[in-house]
Amino acid sequence: MSPTPMGDENGRYSCVEGAIRVIEQSGLEYEVGALGTTIQGPADRLWPLMRELHDATLEAGADRVMTHFRILEAKDDVVEASMADLVSRITH
User: Fold this and answer.
1) Fewer CB within 10 Å, N side or C side of the chain?
2) pTM score, whole prediction
């Protein structure tokens, strides 16, 4: 989510934090990074979650939001690598 503004008098990143609260409530595995957030879960839960995250930034006070996301899904519905696997490959 790239909200404008990113925050308000309640906090520098309050609009982004609104989306992160929705992710926390989803129960899916996630990792917040400096320039983005990674969420792992079944595609049928991720697609509607993306809309919820978009809406959450607006509800948190953003005037507008541009949403960028990438979904990795294997044809046989089995993803070969978890978030931890992918990160460990680049940090070792």
Assistant:
1) C
2) 0.78
